[in-house]
Specification:
Blueprint: E1 16-17, H1 24-27, E2 32-33, E3 37-42, H2 48-62, E4 67-71, H3 76-84, H4 90-95, E5 99-103, H5 108-114, H6 120-133, E6 137-141, H7 143-146, H8 153-170, E7 173-179, H9 192-195, E8 198-207, E9 210-220, E10 230-235, E11 238-241, E12 257-258, H10 263-267, E13 274-275, E14 279-284, H11 290-303, E15 308-312, H12 317-325, H13 332-337, E16 340-344, H14 352-366, E17 370-374, H15 385-401, E18 405-411, E19 431-440, E20 443-453, E21 463-468, E22 471-475
Parallel strand pairs: 3-7, 3-8, 4-5, 4-6, 6-7, 14-18, 14-19, 15-16, 15-17, 17-18
Antiparallel strand pairs: 1-2, 8-9, 9-10, 10-11, 12-13, 19-20, 20-21, 21-22
Helix pairs in contact: 14-15
Length: 484
């Protein structure tokens, strides 16, 4: 399968400085304003220092632009230790003259004793650091610590303007971090956002006892930019931003079919299975066999030599592998071969946004042909129906852009096996399989039928559904229905 690589196209405008941060360059239409200052603001723990450091490090490593990181709160050794887990080797970059890290100690008590404080010494020190490596990028972390010694508001404003003007005159692309102010103000002094050419706001909030991170571009002089709140994630590779503005209904489709993994079920679709790149919903009450259908699909994908990503939100991978082996589905062999990858996590481990970013990252890295999400209804523990539907819409659009065939399982609670789902996503699905259980003559039997399948003829018969040691069996005849 050839996946179409989406490369954002940006209009000509002011010069841009790419950050190299996943998703951020797309939101900003190419990066931060080159040769101008950008303000990174947010509350404690939102990721301001990390974004600033990543901008400097990626500039040095990926774009050949040396950078200076000037810190006022953490020493060079502390910074190196903090970002070392992300694979950022500051010592190596410093030895290669690609990075200069300078810690400036500012004591307010000493300033109050002398009564004198201005930025001349800073300009000299920063200028020397820039010249020593020919820096093109500068990060100052943070502006509160820098101006801690200025009790006079008028002097503070004047010095702040002078700092931004000095950075512009040096022609460096600068990022300055700032703490969020009180009463929902962007910054503590209320001036930084007005003298900055670009303002990026980072937010770290807790909803339903689950932490979520988001990013928003407040302003960007001379450039169009994304204006929404974007999900972000911090992991072992750094900061990731999900540019949801790139998703939509502009994906291409194919007439190629892929097997469901159950020959009798394929016959219900004219003997050919699902459309490649389509979305398939398998819903039913507990114990109807939803995971078994999903596992059969994953097994069939791997048998074709294709990669499959299995996102498990309810069972551990080892448990899924063991249980599916009891019905003749050997998933362990594909795991060992590397064509099947499990990603298991409780839904409550992260917020919806972080799950969304994680899915994007896994798909980008593994490049699967097929994806299984089992079950999507576990997301109800961390969001309401509207939020879950919005998140899954973005997942579906993202997968369709890459022609990834996706199977989603959905649990119908309370013994209800009706033609609706608990997460409100049935209208998003191209194909919908409904599983149910009925009791007859003292025996419970499983049944399966195709509720809908867009663009293809499909059976309208209800088939008895059995789980055997040789796999899934469907009993009863199948009669083709009208195409939809």
């Amino acid at each position: 399968m050839k996946a179409r690589t989406l490369r954002p196209r940006f209009r000509a405008g002011i010069p841009k400085c790419p950050t190299g941060i996943r998703g951020l360059d797309e939101i900003t239409r190419g990066g931060l304003p080159r040769g101008r200052p950008t303000l990174i603001c947010g509350s404690a723990g939102s990721g301001k220092t990390l974004l600033a450091m990543e901008f400097i490090v990626r500039g040095a490593r990926e774009f050949g632009e040396p950078g200076v990181f000037m810190a006022f709160e953490e020493t060079a050794e502390e910074l190196a230790d903090n970002v070392g887990s992300l694979g950022f080797d500051l010592s190596r970059l410093i030895a290669q003259k690609k990075l200069a890290v300078d810690y400036v100690r500012i004591e307010r008590s000493e300033i109050e004793e002398t009564g004198e404080y201005d930025l001349e010494g800073l300009f000299v020190r920063l200028g020397q650091a820039i010249d020593s490596i020919g820096a093109k990028r500068v990060a100052l972390d943070s502006v509160e610590a820098l101006f801690a010694g200025l009790p006079n508001e008028a002097v503070l404003r004047a010095e702040l303007r002078r700092l931004f003007a000095w950075l512009k005159n040096r022609g460096v692309t600068a990022v300055i971090t700032a703490e969020r102010g009180r009463d929902h103000d962007l910054t503590r002094h209320g001036l930084e956002e007005y003298v900055s050419d670009c303002v990026v706001f980072l937010d770290h909030r807790v909803i339903n006892q689950v932490a979520t991170r988001r990013l928003r571009i407040i302003k960007y002089r001379g450039s169009v930019h994304g204006t929404n709140e974007y999900p972000t994630m911090i992991d072992e590779t750094g900061l990731s931003v999900l540019p949801i503005s790139s998703l939509g209904l502009d994906y291409r489709v194919t007439r190629q079919r892929v097997s469901s993994g159950v020959p009798a079920l394929d016959k219900m679709f004219g003997g050919r299975g699902y459309y490649r790149g389509s979305s398939v919903l398998v819903s039913g009450t507990a114990g109807t066999g939803k995971t078994s259908v999903a596992a059969a699909f994953a097994d069939a994908a791997c048998r074709r030599g294709e990669r499959c990503l299995y996102l498990a939100f309810e069972e551990a991978p080892a448990q899924i592998v063991r249980n599916m082996a009891s019905i003749g589905t050997n998933l362990d062999s594909w795991v060992r071969k590397g064509t099947l990858r499990f990603h298991a996590a409780r839904a409550t481990l992260h917020g919806l946004e972080q799950h969304l970013v994680a899915i994007h990252k896994l798909v980008d890295e593994f490049k699967p042909h097929s994806v299984v999400m089992d079950p999507v209804t576990n997301m109800t523990a961390i969001g309401d129906i509207a939020e879950i539907a919005a998140m899954l819409t973005r997942v579906i659009d993202f997968l369709k852009q890459r022609r990834v065939t996706a199977v989603f399982t959905s649990l119908n609670e309370g013994g209800r096996a009706g033609e609706r789902t608990d997460v409100g996503i049935s209208s998003l699905m191209d194909t919908w399989l409904l599983l149910r259980q009925d009791e007859s003559a003292g025996e419970r039997k499983r049944f399966l039928y195709v509720l809908k399948s867009r663009g293809m003829a499909h059976s309208s018969r209800v088939r008895e559904f059995r789980l055997t040691r040789q796999g899934i069996r469907l009993d009863g005849g199948a009669r083709p229905g009208a195409a939809r």
